[in-house]
Design goal:
It holds the Pfam family Hpt. It comes from Desulfomicrobium apsheronum. Keywords: Phosphoprotein. This is Hpt domain-containing protein. Residues 16-103 form the HPt domain. It is elongated and about 40 Å long. It contains 5 helices and no strands. It has 103 residues and is mainly α. It has one domain (2-99): Four Helix Bundle (Hemerythrin (Met), subunit A) (Up-down Bundle), CATH 1.20.120. Helices cover 85% and strands 0% of the residues.
């Protein structure tokens, strides 16, 4: 998946490999931090708004990295949080989390 993302970033942004590596690293940091934020929120330390905000951030990072299917799942997580559907948000997160384990 790493190579796929880097190829996407190169194609979309037309940057050199050093810049692509930096951009990829920033994307990975954002995804990892957001997953940690979601883990905390789902463990009881957050609320619907926190989940919606984290889902929004995750969605943007994934779309920017060209991971459209995962970005759509993050969008579903965001919307479930906004609407207060916590069981649905948790179910989406449980499907999304293993797909993002490489971050």
């Amino acid at each position: 998946m790493k190579q796929r993302v880097k190829e996407h970033l190169c194609r979309v942004y037309g940057l050199g490999m050093d810049d692509i590596d930096e951009l990829y690293g920033l994307g990975c940091q954002t995804v990892a931090a957001t997953l940690s934020r979601l883990e905390t929120a789902f463990s009881g330390a957050g609320d619907e708004q926190e989940i919606a905000d984290a889902g929004h951030m995750l969605k943007g990072a994934l779309f920017n990295m060209g991971l459209l299917e995962l970005g759509e799942m993050a969008r579903a997580l965001e919307l479930a949080g906004k609407d207060g559907y916590m069981e649905e948000a948790r179910a989406v997160y449980e499907r999304l989390r293993p797909a993002l384990k490489f971050f």
